[in-house]
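Handoff note, outgoing to incoming analyst
You'll be picking up this chain. Sequence as last confirmed:
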Amino acid sequence: MKLRLCRFALTGLAVAAVLAPPATAQVRDHSKIKYPPLPDFKIAKPEVYTLENGMTVFLLEDRELPLISVQAQIRTGSNYEAESRTGLAELMADVQRTGGTARMTGDEIDEYLAVRAASVETGMGGSAGFASMNSLTDAFDDTFAVFADVLRSPAFSEDKLEVAKIQTNAGIARRNDSIGAITGREFSRLMYGTDSPLSWMVEYETVAAVERDDLVEFHRKYYHPNNVYLGVVGDFDSAKMKAKILATFGDWKAGPALELPAVPYREPKPGVYFIEKSDVNQAHVRLGHLGIEQRNPDYFAVQLLNEIFGGGFAGRLMQVVRSDKGLAYSVFGGVGASFDYPGVFQTGLQTKSETMAEAVDALKAEIAGIIDNPPSEEELRLAKESILNSFVFRYDSRREILGQQMTYAYYGLPADYLETYRANVEKVTGADVLRVAKEYIHPDRLTLLVVGKAEDFDKPLSTFGEVTELDITIPPPADTTPAVARTPASLEAGAELMAEMSLAVAGDDPSAIRSLHRKGSMVLSIGGQPMQLGSDLLVVFPDKVRMDLKTPMGEVTTVLDGKTGFRKAGGQVTDLSADDVKDASEELARDLARIVVSGASGVEAVAAGEEEIDGVAYRILALSLGGVETRMWVGPDGLVLKQVYQGKHPLQRTPGKTEMRYSDYREVGGLRIPHVQVMQFEGQEIMRTVLESVEVNPEVDSGAFAKPAA
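Most recent structure output, in case you need it:
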């Protein structure tokens, strides 16, 4: 045993001796270490050929693993849809996959692929459509057949289109939740102009305008083999793969040649722009103007400029703005380049609201400094090392290489673009960097956008010039509810019906109802799956609400106290946003008991006709409380059968037609309360509440609406 240990020890010493450099070669200063030149980086070249129908094919064998990947780029994009149907292209790409084909429904495709551990996906960008598949070699034939069907012959089922619309609307509802997303989106809109497809936003109205025929027409117009670049990489024999591609796509007839128009945009107007976000304690700042296209011959010099200016921890922005001045945790900047229109030169950061102006001054100083203080030889050396050393890791798989080669071909860049990348970077000089800085960075043309809470800023934003405030309000969907004529006769009839309903629900003195405490169970439908919740609701009229929900994930408490509120979940307490407070206040304004308690003094009531339901004539009452509108169907007994209004989905917060159905009225403390309440949203039941106990005018704990200490 001792001998073995000794042998191992000696072996270790021998290895250490071999690996250690000679004593004369050791250096104490890392900057003096001499490195050999980087070896040549050989980039695998795909075989490229064209089918008779015009489809361009890229093949790249990779026998390392029994996997095959296929990717396709289609010459189309959301930049080419009509403004009135913004969102059409992405909906088409979504339903192209989920909506199935003539052979299988989307759900059947899901099951078919899952059994084979395979995937087929579709997507849409601004200037290209996408489709991809991944499979084991043994499952390639089956998966490739599905991929081809999805690409060529999607069924675009109506039900999956409706699902996609709901998901899209959910995204619209959330688009102002993140201050970072707001800043990036609105700065881009300032750069290209709101009349450019690059700035159009998907709205509820444009989503509603999209019909199945629009998807079919979009696909028919753009999805032809002569518009498709198809790439295959993985474990295959090229000769056999060529035969398979020909058998699968050879009979696909070419379409008319399409010349896609240039994407319109306008030069940005320099100025100072502001978006108020009162619920944040940081300011988000962007400064910039338009950049360059990637085919610009100065692209490589610009890449070195960007690395010196804003590249990682060695860049000037990080060194000065973050490290020296401590104004931001992260800061970035550079001249952006896009393939078929100019990118954006921009610098940006997040900073404390109290250092907004100081941070803007710091960014402006660095923008001027990259021109006034040319890069040193050391900065240029480090920038080149950073780009070249990371280059190989961006293309360390044949799949990545194939994807990049296809993209360069798609946008018309030279076939040797990747092979010459390193040489083009290495030949850039300090003089080149200074020249492109002067040519493509313009301190006198800057657009400044700040998003944050103005009252907390260290200086008024107007310090930097005249301020234009941007409105990011999300336009609500069109309300298709028929208008009601407010005539003396309809108002008088409405007041009479309101009094009848109030008497039936609350008796002679509704004003005596000061508060309600309701407990029950709720079943919430999430993606078609039921979730059981426990509900404890306390309302103190006119404007205080406390809702305690018991969910499978824990308890959630939401409190509205007049014009403010908070939510407690998972031990964390957060203030309700202005939008959340507004939504909660509107929900309370439509509460049946709240309307009855308000009475004639606070509610405008208009008679809006009649409707027969299950043989019973119901009178329709159009109500408005504080500008919040709703309609109620009142039966012969004065009780409300249903209520219809433009509300929001309780989870997704998407606006839409909401219907409440009331039944099982029981008298509690002189108040007749419906103990079963069913909510439908856009015709689908999403929530059912069954009350278990109701208290009228309960004793209210003084701390029920108090915000817990942080």
